[in-house]
Amino acid sequence: MENLLKQLEELREKIISAKKILDIASLESEKRELERQMTASGFWQNQRQAVEISTRAENLDAEISKWLNLEEEVLELEKLVALGQKEGDASMYQEAQAQLEILENKFSKLEFLLLFSEKYDRFNAILSIHAGTGGVDAQDFAQMLSRMLMRFCEKKGWQIRLVDSSPGQEAGIKSQTFQISGSFSYGYLKSENGVHRLVRISPFDAESMRHTSFAKVEVLPDLPEAKEVELQDKDLRIDVFRSSGQGGQSVNTTDSAVRIVHVSTGLSATSQSERSQHQNKETALQILKAKLYQLEEDKQSEKENKLKGEAKVAVWGKQIRSYVMQPYKMVKDHRTNFSTDQVDKVLDGEIEPFIEAYLRLQREKKSL
Known about the structure:
- The chain is an alpha+beta fold.
- It is 49% helix and 20% strand.
- It has ten helices and eleven strands.
């Protein structure tokens, strides 16, 4: 019994330590503030903002509850074991030991969240996929990556909003941009940021030759702070054009799509998913501000990244992951060396092992 009590105490201390690292107290404060906003009159006048706030509050509640409930279960079991020890009741030992194993397994699953210790890991994500070198094969590969990432997001139960899509001429896509809303969605998806490489026998080659093609994934945190970035009209070039995406007849017959270019940096953002030009402009501005905010963050950390020898920006030829379909099957991440021969499963969204390997590597680098 004494040893069992000691194990329970150690588990409770681990939970308390994890709660401090994850700053659960701060999350509770944020949740209370969001709930206050949700009870204010006129909350649903801006539906998109209301949904974002409600979703964030719901995600926070789920995250906080998991930790508080686990801590409460450990405390209850501690009290039960202490009572059994006091009364000399040895019959409940095996049952308590089995319950401890269950609680330890629960903690192990939650402990994975400790890998999300970076500044923006909790936030939603802005995800873009771009076809690179390789012609129609690259455009087809970009669509394969888009499907892979969307399948992963669907399995996580995250909300997915297509912002912009540019179809390929023969097949696939030239580019797509999504807004992803879900707990730790940026923390998960940031591992996909970079150039991806595909090697296969091309279905578009009449001679069935093996082709190598590339596509780039860009992942940005969708930050509230980015909304505070100030932009003046003279700094921007705004183009409107007819949407090429889905959304109904009026979307495709009016100049509702918007592209905004930040002249001095060349950064741009496009939105064509809404029927209204005004809504598309608002979305494009939001994404452009996120890009500009991230640019400033990158500048501030550039010196540190150089010292670590890390490339912050994805560059063609500096692929992070290779997907080989012929002459053998393998997906290999070149940063972690993690690999699998289950190519079809990976392309169907089963990328969590790659994400975990990347997060653990980043954690190890940080601790050096």
